[in-house]
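Researcher: Batch entry, complex prediction.
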Amino acid sequence: MQKRLLLTPGPTMVPPEVAAAEAQPIIHHRAPEFTPVMKRVQEGLRYLFQTKNPVVILASSGTGAMECALTGVCSPGDKVITVEGGKFGERWGKIAKTFGLNPVNVPIEWGSAITPEKVKQLLDENPDAKAVCITHCETSTGVLTDVKGIAAIVSKSNALLLVDAVSSLGAEELRTDEWGVDMVITGSQKAIMLPPGLAFLSVSERAQKRAAESKCASFYFKLSSYLKNLEKDTTPYTPAVSLIMALDKALEMIRKETVEKIWERHARLSSAIQAGCRAIGLEIFSQSPSHVVTPIRVPEGIDGEKIPKILRDELGVTIAGGQDQLKGKVIRIATLGYATEFDATTGICALEIAMNKLGYKFQVGAGIQAALKELMK
Amino acid sequence: MQKRLLLTPGPTMVPPEVAAAEAQPIIHHRAPEFTPVMKRVQEGLRYLFQTKNPVVILASSGTGAMECALTGVCSPGDKVITVEGGKFGERWGKIAKTFGLNPVNVPIEWGSAITPEKVKQLLDENPDAKAVCITHCETSTGVLTDVKGIAAIVSKSNALLLVDAVSSLGAEELRTDEWGVDMVITGSQKAIMLPPGLAFLSVSERAQKRAAESKCASFYFKLSSYLKNLEKDTTPYTPAVSLIMALDKALEMIRKETVEKIWERHARLSSAIQAGCRAIGLEIFSQSPSHVVTPIRVPEGIDGEKIPKILRDELGVTIAGGQDQLKGKVIRIATLGYATEFDATTGICALEIAMNKLGYKFQVGAGIQAALKELMK
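Model: Structure tokens for the complex:
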């Protein structure tokens, strides 16, 4: 017998009560009984996003919400600053190019984050930039970007700040209104504890004004249309009803725990993972690691693709490997969303078993001992 | 106590075994155990679509798949023929305009269907047209279009035939390859018996060639990218895993029943609804009614918005009202997807009760008697 554990940076595990809510009989999305659900999830999302502004709900993956955000507030020819420090940062640039924007792509080393100072310099050099697009947690490298510091700079400029928080919202502190972030994007299958299929974006007053003027080619993802429909607690096209019923339940759990406690929990669990790894001589890849996912450098002489394979196939624990240029060079362990201290300890125990099988030399038990000590702090 | 019955043309009722499949623990979409699921649903979809060609799966509503199809095989400036005989036919024209295509919009009276002869004439007048976009069942009016006849004409031209079968696929005969239809589009929340959140499109060889050349602005919905990923049984962005697990179960049920039997069942149930309505003096709105949904003209002196309200709030039976210019003028009853003869009889019984409450004069029981007789044929 195996119990399956999903320690990946999305999709993440779904609480049984959320899965049960998803399996409820379908309500017609235009029936009056769906309206209170839409009102309630809107309130819950605004709490989670820490915003008083509308949060748009899309039936799509997180990438769809990135497209909706960027095409929703820009017009062809607009200059936008995009930061390429990993697979997801690159995506901003690709979307911008696709829709005829003029992206200033800023490449930074994979594993490092852009600083507020660098953003200030970029805005000084490009005072006509209409948007700055960054990635809160670059899931491919685990790096966390200083959104608060960057927002303090960008909010004083004419550019809007678009933050891809697909993997981080709920796991890392992000105070949308207080920090002055114009658009925060996230997906359902991360800290929100839902299956994939929904994406969300918050829209500041500045961004709402821009949405009314945007001229990018956009139909399904037309931001202004979602904003107009949201005023009537509805969506322009059929919403993913069962996922929204599940969202209602997940947001109830999130409000009960409170975002502050959830941020704390993510910090505690990922610190335990980091401590456990370091104690058996493994190096954390990222220079500014997030609490979303811990990327671990594969040690010399070990086959990096075999670690996740053994964990998954022999032990029932799914973690992530490296993506693109990091394939085989890192493994990534996440305690994201529906995860407790014992998911973290199981992760470290399983990692010790797998590394031992692969012939990696370390003191068995040192990892889990360090993880436990970290959790007892 | 009320049992809720959903007799709308989407979302439709979800079988309990499909809902249970949806609530299963999440599998990571890049894990090897997801590959056989993707292979199996691809086979099942090809059977349902009656095609040997790839069927793309999107996390979006049906509208997203329409955008994916049209932008996937056209380039800005391309002439396309779109038929506006209802709310959904209009949508083709709007999408075409949004992405810089040159739509020749053909308005026809709401409640009527375009004929193969008219399509032939349009193609003769527009030999440079790159695509003909039609609606199999125009859900807003219940009208069925002769796709087979139109495909026989279009397949001899240089234009591709794009068929919005969002509400009809599985409910009405549609033989994609045999008839020569290039792209068939559908959604999950209709005859496929799933919650909303997935959309599908089949892509003929001609259309695949065109997809490689398309120059429309498209990122999330980039058709060529979905086709490329499908070869590896995957998707470019995170798929809606729980809905795909549910799809796997629903397609198993569909294959067991067979499409021919499912088409027959839809015909039998909607004929019973039609017979029941006629027997109490109600008129069917559509000139060529489909088996997807039966639109019924609201009789003189009766408040058309009150009929669905009484059915839903007092009797637990949700039907649809009229949309846009038909608001208050028609009601629409569907026995689509997971529906049996006793859902049809319940629908007619409930309709008799509601019409009686509203003071409509008719012989009580005449409707259900006619419906029963129709079902006994």
